[in-house]
């Protein structure tokens, strides 16, 4: 299997990243972040989540965010803003706000499914069938997520066959893309490749995406391992924002900046302007009061320093 020549990145920072923040981020900051990410060339930006604000207060302004983006004079027609809709109520609210693509999520771990959405895997799939039917009737695209594809914080290692079965159920429902999430970042290139191979036997590889957390520093290596199998879609989060409140110990998603650095280094096209991307990462990091210390950002700073010093070895 040859590596792809071009990769699509699905930016999940505004939703999957910010929902894990304790401080409420103002609507205007969320919109500006998403606009900057679009300006940087990202064509799929998960904008928000239509969930109960009682459970996820950070997403209480979901309708306001989506409406503003769709009406923005800066809007680029090629950019999509998928939103998470865990049930019919959330789906209906998303449609009312103008959603043109929605996402649903299941788990490959029974215990995680219970902890995350208070139902079994089978029950969650039945629940989503109604969402998918409604979306299909309105010609709204549906993306599927599978959590704990390699390991679960409660059950340990997850059988790749179980992950593949859940992915196939979502595919058969009508999800155009299935994102395979290493929720606790326990995957290694070997375990991730094994999981992808089993999944790809049931779902076409071009319909699969990698979603890797960086708990053990393996996320970029896992992206590379996935590329070797021909995977051409990856989820990533600006400044590595994220985590999971139902997965103890899970750190942020792989940073978009680091994935772009890898891909461009391999000669793989992304359509992303790295300088604008780094500026977006700095913007949200400054707002959250954090040092912007992504590896790719540090590398750029070091490179600029070296170029400014005469006699520095290049």
Automatic annotation (TrEMBL):
A Pfam family the protein falls into: HMGL-like
Keyword Iron: no
Keyword Membrane assigned: no
EC number annotated for this UniProt entry: 4.1.3.4
Enzyme class: lyase
Keywords from the UniProt entry: Lyase, Metal-binding, Pyruvate, Transferase
Superkingdom: Bacteria
MF GO annotations: hydroxymethylglutaryl-CoA lyase activity; metal ion binding; transferase activity
SUPFAM superfamilies: Aldolase (SSF51569)
GO BP, sorted A to Z: ketone body biosynthetic process; L-leucine catabolic process
Pathway noted in the entry: Metabolic intermediate metabolism; (S)-3-hydroxy-3-methylglutaryl-CoA degradation; acetoacetate from (S)-3-hydroxy-3-methylglutaryl-CoA: step 1/1
UniProt family annotation: Belongs to the HMG-CoA lyase family.
Name by which UniProt lists this protein: hydroxymethylglutaryl-CoA lyase
Originating species: Candidatus Accumulibacter aalborgensis
């Amino acid at each position: 299997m040859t590596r792809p020549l071009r990769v699509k990145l699905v930016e999940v920072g505004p939703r999957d990243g910010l929902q894990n923040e304790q401080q409420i981020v103002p609507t205007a900051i969320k919109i500006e972040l998403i606009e900057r990410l679009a300006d940087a060339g990202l064509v799929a930006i998960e904008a928000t989540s239509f969930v109960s604000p009682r459970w996820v207060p950070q997403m209480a302004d979901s309708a306001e965010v989506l409406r503003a983006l769709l009406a923005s004079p800066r809007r680029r027609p090629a950019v999509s803003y998928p939103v998470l809709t865990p049930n019919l109520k959330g789906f209906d609210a998303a449609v009312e706000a103008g959603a043109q693509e929605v996402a649903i999520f299941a788990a490959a771990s029974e215990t995680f499914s219970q902890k995350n959405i208070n139902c079994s895997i089978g029950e969650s799939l039945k629940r989503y069938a109604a969402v998918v039917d409604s979306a299909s009737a309105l010609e709204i695209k549906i993306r599927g997520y599978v959590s704990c594809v390699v390991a679960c914080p409660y059950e340990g290692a997850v059988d790749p066959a179980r992950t593949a079965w859940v992915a196939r159920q979502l595919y058969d429902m009508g999800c155009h893309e299935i994102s395979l999430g290493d929720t606790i970042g326990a995957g290694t290139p070997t375990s991730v490749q094994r999981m992808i191979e089993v999944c790809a036997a049931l779902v076409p590889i071009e319909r699969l995406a990698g979603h890797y957390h960086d708990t053990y520093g393996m996320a970029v290596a896992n992206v590379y391992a996935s590329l070797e199998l021909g995977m051409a879609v990856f989820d990533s989060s600006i400044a590595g924002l994220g985590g999971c409140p139902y997965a103890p110990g899970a750190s942020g998603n792989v940073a978009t900046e680091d994935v772009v650095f890898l891909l461009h280094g391999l000669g793989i096209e992304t359509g992303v302007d790295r300088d604008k991307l780094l500026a977006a990462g700095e913007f949200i990091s400054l707002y959250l009061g954090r040092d912007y210390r992504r590896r790719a950002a540090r590398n750029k700073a070091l490179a600029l320093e070296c170029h400014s010093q005469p006699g520095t070895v290049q």
